[in-house]
Design brief:
about 675 residues, mainly alpha, two-stranded antiparallel ribbon, two-stranded antiparallel sheet, 28 helices, about 65% helix, elongated
Length: about 675
């Protein structure tokens, strides 16, 4: 026991060390370099993982923004202001002409108009306008308003703000004097200004859209960041800083090391508490030796998963077959242990890989799917189909997560999804292929292996049918009885059935010495009790020899050894007492044992004795004795002999077993009505 404890603790310690080393050498703890901006690099530095070159991305965005053509809009207030200034100007001319405002202010009319006018002209032009008749001024006003409105309605941009030629051509067509035409042109040139201006809001929105369309610039994993002998630019410095390669404070690294150790120990302790205290400790049916093997298996698989994660650094995480460990554990210990172990593996792997939320979600969900699929698997012929299921689930999951984060459905994404599909398939095939090795090394049983052993075409079962037909059918009955009882006491029904099939294969070497295979002649009638005992007890050792010859698993050997326990061969022991006056020891007529160590072995023992006893007394059943009495007496005999002391059956289980046996045997040995003979009338 101490040796076993030492072994699993050794594996646990080795797992902690391997995990610590893998995390330190992974992407979470990258190598550091001491470089300053503008310094010459002493070595070439490569990116440990894909990282965005933010400065290059910014440059691309600035280029895209600069290439955007501005959006324009017309400013309607400019036209309103221009028309208003023209109307106000001519109103002031009329006022100065028709009032004595100049006399009151003791100024000349030109001075008054110059001060009031919103349109700047020469004094000579003001004087000409003041001396003009009202009809000419009216025509001039209408021309100014019409030409100005037409020009501003069409829109005037800053680049095309000189409209002198267009104004002259428009004014020349009017019925005005040459002097008045020139003044009209000056008025219009004075009031117009560009009214097509840049729409800042629309232009900024357009620039933002152009920036959003720019794909980030990435430095791929293993791509050069800084080349040896080159100057450290701001861009390279930023990248070194982003991937964590810049050495700043060395003491901080030692603090991180302590943090990693504490993280591993705390997480591992919580995992161990669940695994051992809740699952293995409460699972009383599990022998202590098997618990140690299971713990060793789990820690070995975690270590292998960590090493595999470290080996796959530098490539996309879809290449990482991380769910292999949880599938193996699911076959050995069930889905709940597999899933909690997988969570621990994903947490450590994400730390090694420096994985993001997509990494974690992908492996958590794919691990759950893989575990649930393989736990339902009972035939190796379903390997390819289940591989397709797991691969398909991983393909859909990867595509879904990529779309979730906003990635486009490009050929790159689809090809990586296909990699996820292939890895899922290969993982299932690899697990099924490696299961026999794990079964042999760590002493666990899978439904697939058990179902294969129940196949009647198994060579040893075929021999049993042909060479010891009575024993074959006896074994079938024992298997049926034991399997039904196993369900009622929470044992493994399939394992119990297999044990029933193979427990008596040793009788092949001397089948005619057993009652179920005999005809009218019984060889024991011509043998001493001791000789008969030697022949009968030899079927145990012969069974072990045959199990070795046919490469049967160890648990079948356990059934062969334990199905009689250390019980006394009652018939020949009593016969020896009658034929001899000497004191006969029970030890001389006892089976070598050991006693049943598991529920399943105990059920096969009880089913064996109950079936044989009931068959021997079937003529008396229902008349002199009840089946339940036979069953109860047989079970009580084994209990009193202490044959059930070393298995995990409780007293409360015995009542369930008796009830199950009675129900099955009643169906097999029920009374039948006597059919009268038919009298044929001639």
């Amino acid at each position: 026991m101490k040796n076993q404890n030492y072994k699993w603790m050794l594996f646990a310690g080795l797992t902690v060390v391997i995990t610590f080393i893998c995390i330190l050498s992974g992407n979470f703890f990258t190598k550091r370099v001491s470089l300053q901006l503008g310094e010459i690099a002493k070595e070439t530095v490569y990116a440990p993982f894909q990282v965005e070159n933010e400065l290059a991305t910014l440059r691309k965005k600035q280029e895209a923004e600069a290439a955007v053509e501005p959006e324009y809009k017309k400013d309607s207030t400019i036209q309103e202001k221009a028309i208003n200034n023209i109307e106000t100007f001519f109103d002031y001319i009329h006022t100065v002409q028709t009032t004595d405002l100049a006399e009151k202010l003791e100024k000349t009319p030109v001075e008054i108009l110059s001060e009031l006018s919103p349109i700047g002209l020469y004094n000579e032009q003001y004087a000409t306008l003041l001396n003009a008749d009202s009809e000419s001024l009216t025509v001039m006003k209408e021309v100014c308003i019409e030409v100005t409105s037409n020009l501003l309605s069409d829109g005037i941009s800053v680049e095309d703000s000189n409209k002198s030629i267009e104004i002259r051509m428009a004014v020349e067509e009017e019925n005005l004097s040459t002097a008045m035409k020139r003044i009209t042109e000056d008025i219009i040139n004075n009031v117009i200004e560009p009214n097509v201006v840049v729409d800042e809001v629309a232009t900024n929105e357009k620039k933002k859209l152009a920036q959003d369309k720019v794909d980030p610039v990435y430095v791929l994993a293993q791509e050069k960041i800084i080349e040896k002998g080159s100057r450290v630019t701001e861009e390279g410095y930023k990248l070194l800083e982003k991937v964590g390669y810049l050495e700043t404070d060395r003491s901080s690294r030692y603090i991180q090391y302590i943090g990693v150790i504490l993280f591993i120990l705390l997480t591992g302790s919580l995992f161990y508490y669940y695994l051992y205290k809740i699952y293995l400790y409460r699972n009383n049916e599990l022998p202590s030796k098997k618990r140690e093997k299971y713990l060793s298996l789990i820690f070995i698989l975690i270590s292998l998963a960590m090493l595999m994660t470290r080996a796959f650094l530098g490539v996309s995480f879809v290449y990482l077959p991380l769910s292999i460990a949880c599938m193996v554990i699911a076959f050995a210990m069930g889905a709940h242990v597999a899933l909690i172990t997988h969570v621990l593996i994903v947490v450590f792997s994400a730390t090694i890989f420096k994985g993001d939320i997509i990494f974690i979600l992908y492996f958590l969900i794919s691990g759950v799917v893989s575990t649930l699929i393989v736990t339902k698997m009972q035939e190796r012929t379903r390997t390819v189909m289940n591989g397709l299921y797991v691969g398909g689930a991983q393909f859909v999951l990867y595509i879904a997560l990529k779309l979730l984060i906003g990635s486009a459905l490009t050929m790159t994404v689809i090809s990586e999804g296909l990699v996820a599909f292939i890895v899922g398939m290969i993982s299932v095939v690899a697990v099924i292929g490696a299961l026999p090795m794990f079964e042999a090394l760590f002493d666990f049983v899978t439904p697939m292996q058990l179902l294969e052993l129940t196949n009647p075409n198994q060579p040893v079962l075929k021999r049993l049918l042909l060479e010891a037909t009575g024993t074959y059918y006896h074994s079938l009955l024992v298997a049926n009885l034991a399997e039904a009882a196993a369900t009622s006491v929470e044992a493994n029904p399939l394992l119990t059935r297999v044990g029933g099939y193979y427990h008596d294969i040793g009788k092949l070497t001397c089948s005619n010495y057993f009652k179920e295979n005999q005809g009218s002649t019984n060889p024991h009638d011509y043998m001493t009790p001791k000789e008969s005992y030697e022949v009968i007890v030899s079927h145990v050792t012969s069974g072990l020899t045959l199990a070795e010859e046919y490469h049967l698993p160890h648990y079948i050997k356990d059934f062969i050894l334990q199905h009689h326990g250390t019980g006394v061969m009652q018939y020949f022991y009593v016969k020896a007492q009658k034929e001899s006056n000497d004191l006969i020891s029970e030890q001389d007529f006892s089976y070598p044992g050991p006693k049943p160590q598991t529920k399943e072995a105990a059920l096969v023992m009880l089913a064996d004795i109950v079936e044989a006893t009931t068959r021997a007394m079937q003529d008396k059943l229902g008349k002199e004795i009840q089946i339940e009495d036979v069953v109860r007496k047989s079970v009580k005999q084994k209990l009193d002999e202490g044959q059930l002391d070393e298995c995990q059956l409780y007293i409360s289980d015995l009542d369930k077993i008796i009830e199950s046996f009675t129900k099955m045997l009643t169906g097999m040995y029920h009374q039948r009505i006597a059919y009268p003979e038919r009298n044929e009338k001639k």
